[in-house]
Structures are given as structure tokens and as C-alpha cells.
Amino acid sequence: MMKHKMLAKVASVLLTLAACNGPPARLIVGFGDTILVNNVRPVQLSVQVFDAAGRTLPDTGVRFEWTSGASVPISPSGVLTCNRAGDAMFRASLGPLVKSALVRCRPVHDVLGGGPVNLVMGDPPYDLWFEAVDAAGRRVRPLTAVLTVDDTMVVRREGWRIRARAPGTTGVDVWVGDGWAHWYVRVFEPAATFDSIRVGQHLALPVRLGAGEQRSWQIPPSRKEFGVQILPVSDTLRVPRLAVIGANCMSRTPWDMPRIPWGYTCLAWHGAAVIAYHPRNVDPAREWSGTVAVLRGDRP
């Protein structure tokens, strides 16, 4: 009985509030009556209806029609398809209310950018380079981009850059229209050794070597995989070479230097070690520098 009385009271309040709303007095289409569309697929134009007191009303009954400019298909309910670049004027109407809006069609067919990113705690922010292009590969401007970070405990965004917050892995995406670019980000913490690395840890150690020099670090035995790689500091052509002994490894190589392993995925036995070295007869006049990064995974 009490429940029915409460429901009746709520319904009465809602009816009272609805009765307080006046008739439609103003339409707003998009943001500032200008709409930028980077989508290739059809999109629903947004419209807001207000009464004279500024209260929001349902947008049921609003109708759209093209009036001038580029020939851009639009349905009476406001579903628009930007099949080419151009500017068009549309009119939204609800009874006697009429509002014109400018739609700037800048369809994006692809977003260039993304890839693997390796950061060490304390590194400066990393710039997320990306470019939106049309069907012919031409740069698209203007555009509206949205940046998302899967795990904000690992990295935080600073404008269009990211900064390492804690060791771990995360994904970062930039969306423009229907397309996006994806970055797979790994953050490592500085270390002096790898011999006590725990499952899930990401450790990194800087190294600088002259011609003929090498350094080695023990890694513990494990039935779960290790990721081992050398990260360039600045000059990607003068990075110490990498080797792993006492382990069963699969090498990973960059596409532009297929003969130079830059990383390994390994199962380590007792006595396993990571070695960074600078070949004596290769570029002997310069030191090579980089960062040895080791990740102990949680997959068997």
C-alpha cells in the first residue's frame, strides 16, 4: 500500500513539472549552429528544444531539409551522410520555429599514426603524432579528435601527449570520425639489475658502450615468458646489440633492419643472462647507448 502511494506521488510530481513547461520557443542545432562532421558513415544531427524559460523539451517532431551549398544527403529526421567535402546549409523546423545550421563535411577515411610506445618512468611526455586523411590520402582540416586512455593509472594525458605514471601496459586511441589510431604503451621503471624481477614487473636499465664492450645481467629462471628488448635513446642507428643466453628465445626485428634483433621473447633457464654489446669493428669511434628493458610476463 505504501509503495503504491509513493508511486502515485512521484507520478503527480512529474505531471506537475510537465505542465509547467511552456510551448517550444527555441531550437539549437549542434554547437553554435555550426556542425563539423568527419564521419564517413551516416550521423544523426543533434538538436535541442527549449521553452521560453529555458527548460528542455523533447525533440520529437523536428524536421530537417537541405537549403543551399554542397549537395549533402539528409533525411527528414536529420540523418546526414558526408559523401564528400563541402559546406551546406540546412534548416531545422518544429511547427513555426525555424533554425538554420551550417554543416561542414570533412570526411576522414583513415587516421595515420599509432604503434608501440615504450616509456621509462621519468621520461618527458610522449607526443602522439597522428594525421587524418581523406580517400585520396590528403590531409583533412578542420577535424574533431578524441583521445582515450585505457588505463589512466599507467599513463596520463597532457593535451595530445602522454606521460608515464606507473609501470604497466595500456592502450591509447585517437578517434577522428569513424577512424582511429592506436598506440600500445608499455611503461618501465628504472632498475640496476634484473636478477630479482617479479611476475608482471617492467624494468629498464640504461647502458652506454664503447667499441668491443659488453655488459650482462642475470635473469631468474621462469616457466613464464620474458620480453627483452633494447630501446634507443636518440640515435636509432647506434644502439647496443642484444643477446640472451641460457634461454629459449624467439627474436623480434624491426621491418627496416631485418638482420638486427631488437628484442626477444624468452623462456629462461637457470643461469640465463641478458647481454648488451657493441661490436668491436662496427662504428668503433663512437659510443653506443640505449636502454635494456625486461618485462616478466604472466603467460606460461
Please characterize this protein's 3D structure.
27% of the residues are buried. The protein has one helix and 24 strands. Helix content is 6%, strand content 51%. The chain is mainly β and 300 residues long. The strands form six sheets. Strands 11, 14, 17, 18, 19, 20, 21, 22, 23 and 24 form a ten-stranded mixed beta sheet that branches. Residues 1-18 and 255-260 have low confidence and may be disordered. Strand 4 and strand 5 form a beta hairpin. It starts with a helix and ends with a strand. It has one helix at residues 2-20, and strands at 24-29, 34-37, 43-44, 47-51, 56-57, 63-69, 79-80, 86-94, 97-105, 110-113, 115-120, 126-127, 130-133, 145-149, 155-158, 161-164, 168-176, 179-190, 202-209, 214-218, 226-232, 241-252, 263-277, 288-296.
Radius of gyration of CA atoms, rounded to a whole number: 29 Å
**Strand-pairing-aware structural class:** mainly beta
- Can you count the helices? 1
Distance between the termini: 60 Å
Helix content: under 10%
Runs in which pLDDT lies below 50 for 5 or more consecutive residues are: 1-18, 255-260
